[in-house]
Design brief:
This protein is of the alpha/beta class and about 350 residues long. It is about 30% helix and about 25% strand. The protein is globular and about 60 Å long. Keywords: Oxidoreductase.
Length: about 350
Amino acid sequence: MTDDRAAHGATGTTGTTVRIGVLGAARIVKTALTQPAHEVPEVTVAALAARDPARARAHADRLGIPHVHDSYDALLADPAIDAVYVAVPNGLHATWSERALRAGKHVLVEKPVTANESEARRLAQVAEETGRIACEAMHPLYHPLTDRVRALLAAGTIGEIRHLEAHIAFPIPSSKDIRWSYELGGGALMDLGVYAVALLRTYAGATGPAAAEITEVVQAKAPTRTKDVDRRVDARLRFAGGATGRIVATMWGWPPLATRCLVEGTKGRLTVLNPLGPQMFNRITVTAAGRRTRESVPREPSTYACQLRAFARAVVDGERPRTDAVHFVPTMGVIDAIYRRAGLPIRGARVADPVADEVA
C-alpha cells in the first residue's frame, strides 16, 4: 500500500491490507491487536514506537512486530504506515490521536477515546477536517453477542424497554498502576464504567438511535482510593425514551471478573452474562410470557478480531465503524456528567506526563 492518498480516495489506501503502527509498549497490544491480526488478513501490524526505544524493541520482538521507531513522531512520519493504534494512557489519547490524524493516519484509539467530552469533540472535528477515521476501540460492540441482544430487543421480545443495568468488576490492587493516576486519566469509571455506559446506550438504541441518548445523571457516587480517582462508581441514569439506567463499576475488591447486563421491559427481562469477553463464555437469558429461555452465541471470533476487521473495512472500503464520533462523543459526555454529579473533577483538568506510555 502506498501513501498516495490524493489519487486513491478519502481512505488513503490502494490495496486491501492496512498497515498499522502502534503508539505505546502496552500489554494490551498483544490481546487487542497482534493476536487478532492473525485472524484478520486485511491488516498487518508493521511498526511500534515507545518512549524508550530499547523497551520498544523488546516489546516488538515479543509480539513479532518487524519495525521499531525511535519516537512517536517518527512513526507518524513513516509513509509506510496507514493507520495507528493508540495505546498510551487515557490522559494522552487526545494528543496522540490528533497528531496521528494530522499526519494522515487513520486512528484506532483505546477506550476511553479521550479524557473528556471536550477532547472527544475536538478529535471528531480533526477527523472530519483530515478525512481520516477516528475509531474508539470499544471491542464488545463489534461482537455477535451484542448483535443478538440488539435483535432480541428490537423484536420486542421483552416489550418496551423500561430499565437497564450494567455491572462490571475487575480489581486493580497495585497502587502503582497508572489507572490510579488522575493525571493519566485513571479511575473505575474511565477504565470500566465507560464499557457500561457504551453497552447500555447500545442496548437502549436497539429500537432507534434517539432512545440511546442519556439525558440525565440522576445520582452518582464515586468513592476514591487516591486523590480524585474513583475506585468504584454507582450512577443512576435517565434515557431519552423514558427508561432508567444504572451502572456499577469497581476496580477495588472481588470477584476478579464479574460482568453482566440487565434489560427490563414491559413484557419481561433479558440478562447478558459476560458481554465484555464473550469469546471466553457468554449467555443470554430471556424471561417473558411465563417462560425462561437461555442461549449463547459462538465464542469465536473474538471481540478484538471483530473490531479489527471492522476497522479494516472502514479504512479500505469506507464502511462506517460502530464506534466513531457518533458513538464516542455522547459517551464521553455521560462520563463527564457522572463525575460532576459525584463531586469529582472530570479527567483532563490536570496535565498528564507527556512521555508516559504504558497501559495495562
